[in-house]
Design brief:
The complex is a heterodimer of chains A (405) and B (254). With 405 residues, chain A is an alpha/beta fold. Chain A has helices at 26-29, 104-112, 342-349, 355-374, 377-404; strands at 3-5, 72-77, 83-88, 115-121, 131-152, 157-178, 183-192, 197-206, 211-218, 223-232, 238-247, 252-261, 267-276, 282-291, 299-308, 314-323, 330-338. Chain A has a 17-stranded mixed beta sheet that branches. Chain B contains eight helices and twelve strands. In chain B, α5 packs parallel to α6 (180-195). Classes of the chains: A alpha/beta (405), B alpha/beta (254). The structure holds adenosine-5'-triphosphate (ATP) and magnesium ion.
Chain lengths: 405, 254
């Protein structure tokens, strides 16, 4: 067994060890799951899973606020071989990922969603062009519930992009099922208006020898909370979980991941990167990896990096690793939160590049490297443009701060 | 002619437990047209000297002076020093994810020259320099140093040296981690650089083998944060035979 905890030496930032500081993730992983809303008590904010969340901004979505709103539209742009359609809540695809709701909002959305939106990629088809589902909210007044199931047939290869924008109070479950040998990329882009609240739970079910890349990108919204859980249907699965978030003043963004290594010889690679700027911008990342007794020969790594661009922003980063078998190939995690990477800045400056420009290159590079990993050229430019727009705000804030000093 | 002058340089490094004094009075004069080798055991302060020359923020010059043609380098930021003609090939080049090699090279060249290079000649110059150093053209689109092997990183340092064409080059263990072919390729690059005009080279190394390819005019033995002995190329041969054992006692006493 080899467990490695590392932060690249050049960053000189803190890495977490697996020693005394690591708390057991048993509670989180074996946490209660039920389809019955009544089984989930209303969280109050002291619970481990809710301790970072500003509960008063949830608009009661975690409690009893109605979820019968329908103030949104869905636009679909897919290859003709892909079926993307709305079906009844009793459709058998709902639940096919093995997911059982792990918290109250998720259970409420499961019960409340009147329809299930399904995206099916047929077996053996190789579909280059990304399938795009766009959900546009038109009002945040009334809570709405959604359910989406993406199914990639055996040995298919495809990309699905789910985009969110506009105003909404949206609670949803997303099931991602990659059948045996499928190669699937799913990208969720949360580009909400400032007043949106989005509570999403994604469950990814990785088939035997399937390869799944799952990415969550969060730019907008007042409060966005994403739970992502992943397990395997058979051995040999390969999962990459990527995330990018950019929290502005007053924004709360939380990502909680649980990777459940329940089969042998699988891989998981988690990389979440975030930037924060402005007063009380708050981002939370909690990454749990459980390696069960049967998960021999697996390899896992998780990394969270936060770039704190201005004072007054806060990033919480909690990686957890629980290992129940000694026979694994590798397991490691790292977490780093800081301003700029001084060594990177120095390297560029030592080549004559002025400090301002060096900072710009390093910060853009921070995002570009993750966006490149997502590997969907069709959305790359647009994502970088959004990052540019956000960075312009950061640079203004920095200039103001310099002016005040 | 240009002169890089290091006088009684004392340098401390910031550590978690406060500053630690590493250099205890270094004196060294490098004129353009000369190659100086600095040799010394691990931990003797060679990289500290290199970083202090380049202006790394972790290293503080506590006393002494550092001038380039009479100009005070200590007053300059790292980028100003580079624009004044200094270059440091680092022992451990830093990975900068998301910044492509080509974007980086163009940005650096523009900064050093004060204007953007002409596109056509630049593309050709980069290609030639990469060919000379046996660097695969596809490295242009890779993230700077990211995932490069040790040897690839060193070759990229020399690529930058050739393209940015400074007056003084400080090469910090550019030879370590290179196999014999790569060593020859890298040495040829350094020699092309020095033969391209009035250039000074400060070659920091732990081993004598690179001195077969890059001939030093002077050799300085660095121990315990200062120069313990200096001489001509013959000093390197002595080190080859006896190692640093003769000096280490002295170093410990510093
Ligand atoms: N950033 C730092 N933090 C803590 N100690 C440092 C730092 N930089 C240098 N030192 C210490 O200063 C001393 C000199 O280090 P330096 O890297 O300059 O040696 P060197 O001669 O280049 O060694 P090598 O041959 O191993 O490259 C060493 O004891 C080293 O541990
Ligand atoms: Mg060194």
């Amino acid at each position: 067994m080899s467990t490695a905890t590392e932060t690249p030496a050049q960053h000189g930032l803190a890495a977490h060890s697996h020693g005394a500081g690591t708390k057991s993730v048993k509670g989180a992983l074996d946490r209660f799951a039920s389809f019955d809303v009544a089984d989930h008590s209303v969280p109050h904010g002291r619970e481990e899973e809710w301790r970072f969340v500003p509960m008063s901004r949830l608009r009661g979505l975690h409690d009893d606020a109605a979820l019968d709103g329908s103030d949104y539209t869905v636009a679909v742009d897919v290859d003709p071989r892909v079926t993307a359609t709305s079906v009844g809540a009793d459709d058998s695809r709902k639940g096919s990922s093995t997911y059982v709701p792990v918290d109250r909002p998720s259970a409420r959305a499961w019960a409340a969603a009147e329809k299930t939106f399904t995206v099916d990629i047929p077996r053996d088809e190789i579909i280059e062009r990304p399938s795009v589902i766009r959900l546009t909210g038109t009002s945040a007044d009334r809570g709405a519930a959604g359910h989406l199931v993406i199914t990639a047939g055996r040995h298919s290869k495809s990309v699905v992009v789910i985009e969110y924008d506009g105003s909404s109070s949206f609670v949803e479950n997303v099931e991602v099922v990659a059948e045996d040998g499928a190669e699937l990329t799913v990208v969720a882009v949360q580009d909400w208006a400032d007043d949106a609240v989005h509570l999403a739970h994604h469950h990814v079910h990785v088939g035997r020898d399937a390869t799944v890349k799952h990415a969550v990108i969060t730019f907008g919204g007042d409060l966005v909370r994403n739970g992502t859980t992943l397990n395997y249907a058979g051995p040999g699965g390969d999962a990459t979980l990527l995330g990018l978030y950019y929290a502005d003043a007053g924004q709360f963004i939380e990502n909680r991941l649980v990777v459940d290594h329940n089969t042998p010889n699988a891989k998981s690679d988690v990389e979440y990167k975030g930037a924060l700027q402005g007063k009380s911008a708050h981002a939370v990342w909690v990454g749990d990896v459980l390696i069960r007794k049967e998960a021999t020969g697996i390899n896992t790594y998780e990394l969270n990096r936060n770039l704190v661009l201005t004072d007054g922003a806060r990033a919480d980063s909690v990686p957890n690793l629980e290992i129940e078998t000694g026979e694994i190939e590798g397991a490691g995690h790292a977490s780093a939160t800081g301003r700029f990477d001084d060594e990177q800045l120095f390297y560029l400056r030592a080549r004559g590049i002025p400090e301002d420009l060096a900072r710009k290159l390093v910060v853009r590079g921070f995002f570009a490297s993750l966006i490149n990993r997502i590997g969907v050229p069709e959305i790359k430019d647009r994502l970088m443009t959004t990052v540019e727009r956000e960075l312009a705000v950061a640079e203004e804030l920095a200039a103001e701060a310099a002016g005040d000093a | 002619m240009s002169t890089l002058e290091i006088r009684d340089l004392h340098v401390s490094v910031e550590t978690e437990n406060g500053p630690v004094q590493i250099l205890h009075g270094v004196n060294l004069t490098v004129n353009s047209g000369q190659t100086h080798a600095i040799m010394g055991p691990n931990g003797s302060g060679k990289s500290t000297l290199a970083y202090a020359l380049a202006g790394h923020p972790k290293y503080t010059v506590t006393s002494g002076s550092l001038t380039l043609d009479g100009e005070d380098l200590l007053e300059m930021t790292p980028d100003e020093r580079a624009r004044a003609g200094m270059f440091l090939a680092m022992q451990y080049p830093v990975e900068v994810p998301g910044v492509s090699v080509s974007n980086f090279l163009r940005s650096a060249k523009t900064a050093i020259d004060g204007e953007a290079p002409k596109l056509r000649t630049w593309v050709k110059d980069v290609k030639t320099a990469m060919d000379n150093l046996r660097i695969d053209p596809e490295f242009s689109e890779r993230d700077l140093n990211t995932g490069f092997s040790g040897g690839e990183k060193k070759r990229h340092e020399i690529l930058q040296l050739e393209l940015l064409n400074p007056t003084f080059a400080v090469l910090d263990e550019t030879d370590s981690g290179l196999d014999i072919d790569a060593l020859r390729i890298v040495s040829d690059g350094v020699n092309r650089f020095s033969s391209g005009g009035d250039k000074g080279v400060l070659l920091i190394t732990h081993y004598t083998r690179i001195l077969r390819y890059i001939k030093p005019d002077f050799v300085h033995v660095f121990v315990g944060g200062k120069v313990a002995e200096e001489g001509g190329p013959e000093l390197a041969e002595k080190l080859e035979e006896h190692g640093y054992a003769d000096y280490v006692g002295e170093g410990a006493a510093v």
